[in-house]
Amino acid sequence: MADAAKEPIVGAEAQPVQNPPPYPGESTYTHAAEPRPEGWIYKGVKIGKKEFWYASPKIQLLMVALVCFLCPGMYNALGGLGGAGQLDPTVQDHASTALYSVFAVVAFFSGSFANKLGVKATLSFGGLGYCIYAASFLSYNHTQNVGFVIFAGAFLGVCAGMLWTAQGAIMMSYPPEQSKGRYISWFWIIFNLGAVIGSLIPLGQNINNTGGTVTDGTYVGFIVLMLVGAALSIFLVNGDKVIREDGSKVILMKNPTWQSEFIGLWECISLSPWVVLLFPMFFASNIFYTYQQNGLNGAHFNVRARSLNNLLYWLAQIIGAVIFGYALDYPKIRRSMRAKISFVALFALTFIIWGGGYAWQRQQVPREVSSQEGYEALKTDWTEPSYIGPMFLYIFYGMYDAIWQTCIYWYMGALSNSGRKTANMAGFYKGLQSAGAAIFWRLDGLHTEFSTMFAATWGVCAGSLLIAAPIIFLKIHDTTDLEEDLKYSDETAQDVAPSSVPEEKRQSV
Predict the structure, then answer these.
(1) N or C end of the chain: which has fewer CB within 10 A?
(2) What is the pLDDT of residues 405-423, one digit of tens each?
(3) Could you tell me which of 209, 216, 223 has the C-alpha nearest to residue 77?
(4) Is 172 exposed, middle or buried, given 0-12, 13-18 or 19+ CB atoms closer than 10 A?
(5) What is the pTM of this model?
(6) How far is CA 84 from CA 78, 112, 301, 403, 430, in A?
């Protein structure tokens, strides 16, 4: 440790070494660790040199990731087929518009629900809507009941708003500061493995199917897996029971009320008004799915090629999240400098990857041609030489999407360690994200030309980065002040500060 402490930190200014004030994950305590409370959730189990207990950030993040693996992960796999597996994507467009419209309203206030009810109840309710959504498409295959599909989409909007807000609060507030990028990447690996495995279902079911609509067995497989995910969430513990390795706890309200939580929602913006500069990035964070899934994958590939593209897309998301998640935690570069470097890299990728997409899109037939029933036989199959180029483009789109969202979560986590504040920020994020998605799914439902959808998506992404730049360059510091986070809580430093942390663990994950 002595040699490691002497290594220069990139971006550091020449100044006397000072010990920072104690903060969860960044403490200067050196005496022996105090024992955890009694109870099975705190009973440690050693695996190698690591000790794990149920109410630890790692295990709780694993549980949340498994819920998302089985619910939204399978939803992503279903949506990635283009039109949710239907030959005509119109019904999915209507359902998605209803979903994201409701999601946008519910999510904006769901931070208050998560803080009042706890993340366990919020996630448990949130998992219910996914299996109903998949079941509505199975019903549509036989009854053509559009109303049920739209209702299922709207109900999923309520459920998803709750689930993703609770998930965001856990992912941003449970980990110690120096490990947030890795925790985000671990979550993204497990979450997107759900989409990867879910993609194998339609790929296996449709490997010899060059027609348009997926089989009933595909939908049944999704329904069963989503039901398991919804049931799993009841085994979580709430944030007030979580204890980190150094003995520190998550900053929450001791006695939350509905009034205090809606006031806290307002305080999140009124005390940090500059956070609104991130809102355009929030808005842009899901709009790319509409063009990529329906304008590229659904419009130009037959069903088995779409299924393979879908699998590769979610695998690429895992790769993108791992690369950026670990890079964002690189210990030899100051956190403020890492934020700036990641932002420049994200800006460059926006023009490199989408510039390649522009070169491909301008060569494609108009939407009115690709939407004709007779065009299905002309769509690209994976056996054709022309498949390789757009396949790699779709892979890079998947990486880009994961990088974008990994960076946003890390930026928000770098602005606060408070469970209460991050729940509200996650609600803002998912609400605005859903508003953007609702608008773009509605544009697709109105049969907007695919080239127009592409241009709008690229433009919004690039513009939102320019607006967010001042926060990334001026507001993300090397550590987050504990007193600043306590403004959003009725807890004190003694309630949440580390009980102890051995010196050799200061740089541990």
Answers:
(1) N
(2) 999 999 988 888 777 777 7
(3) 223
(4) buried
(5) 0.76
(6) 5, 32, 14, 24, 21
Tell me, letter by letter, the H, E, C secondary structure of 181-226.
HHHHHHHHHHHHHHHHHHHHHHHHHCCCCCCCCCCHHHHHHHHHHH
The span from the CA of 152 to the CA of 97, in Å, is 11
Long-range contacts from 444-449, C-beta under 8 angstroms, 24+ separation? 444/89, 444/93, 444/290, 444/291, 444/294, 444/295, 445/90, 445/93, 445/94, 445/96, 445/97, 447/367, 447/371, 448/367, 449/366, 449/367
Tokens of 150: 């739209």
Q: Alpha carbon of 185 to those of 122, 210, 325, 415: distances in Å?
A: 23, 35, 5, 18
Q: 47: part of which helix (H) or strand (E)?
A: strand 45-47
Residue with tokens 């360059």: 473
Q: Based on the number of CB atoms within 10 Å of its own CB, is 105 exposed (0-12), middle (13-18) or buried (19 or more)?
A: middle
Contact call for residues 224 and 97 (beta carbons, < 8 A) = no
* Secondary structure of 58-112 in HEC code, one letter for each residue: HHHHHHHHHHHHHCHHHHHHHHCCCHHHCCCCHHHHHHHHHHHHHHHHHHHHHHH
> What are the tens digits of pLDDT across the range 49-79?
888 888 888 899 899 999 998 998 888 777 7
The angle that helices 335-361 and 388-415 make with each other, rounded to 10 degrees, is 150
Residue from 174, 248, 246 nearest 30 by CA? 246
Q: Judge contact between 418 and 489, C-beta under 8 A.
A: yes
CA 207 to chain centroid, in Å, comes to 30
Residues 388-403: tens digit of each pLDDT: 999 999 999 999 999 9
**Residue 304: both structure tokens together:** 């088995």
